[in-house]
């Protein structure tokens, strides 16, 4: 089984307490609402920083398919860390005009660094991993090592020393 995580998966655990938490006049519903709102914002920020990835197990390999629209091959890195973790990372840059003033009305496209990490199974052949990118889709193929050969039971005659 392949386990995966965002590179910054524990960030949401560090959500700060709302200011009203320290206010004795604030009721519990307001405090709960502020905590929930802060938590949802943090989860949304983390989710948007990542990239969507499908992971498929085929007969002879694992296939990771990531959406990276608008990125060039030079903007994305595929690595294996600690002999067991596949890392897909990159940097999505905003195309601002340096000579003109820009006033955004709405910003939905995320920019900045992103990273996704996946724990690879023991049968992954790390030496033969390959990646290709076409039309904003990154495909990473992780071949499987063949299963170890089954040893046939042997009968041995052992001489007893006198």
Automatic annotation (TrEMBL):
InterPro entries for the chain: A-crystallin/Hsp20_dom, HSP20-like_chaperone, Small_HSP
Residue ranges occupied by any SHSP domain in the UniProt entry: 44-161
Domain of life the protein comes from: Eukaryota
Keywords, alphabetical: Stress response
PROSITE patterns associated with the record: SHSP
Similarity section: Belongs to the small heat shock protein (HSP20) family.
Protein name as it appears in the record: SHSP domain-containing protein
Species in which this protein is naturally found: Ceratopteris richardii
